[in-house]
Amino acid sequence: MSMVVVVTENVPPRLRGRLAIWLLEIRAGVYVGDTSKRIREMIWQQITQLGGVGNVVMAWATNTESGFEFQTWGENRRIPVDLDGLRLVSF
């Protein structure tokens, strides 16, 4: 199990409701929780299916040098870039 953070912008209410099933919404569009890899992947599948025209970033704790991984989805997304094993963000 690892900590997961999901930040959403302009997503449909049905996705926000679906995320609230597994994660705690601590602020509008910001969700946190402690999930297994299987549940995290299932949440990501829901995000890609129900995201509409919005955009989403999901970050979770890992045993990497930075201590976390992340992925993005949607039109206004920032793109993850690997720089010698360190994940950075390209705009």
TrEMBL record:
InterPro entries found in the cross-reference section: CRISPR-assoc_prot_Cas2_sub (IPR010152)
Pfam families named in the record: Cas_Cas2CT1978
Name of protein: Type I-E CRISPR-associated endoribonuclease Cas2
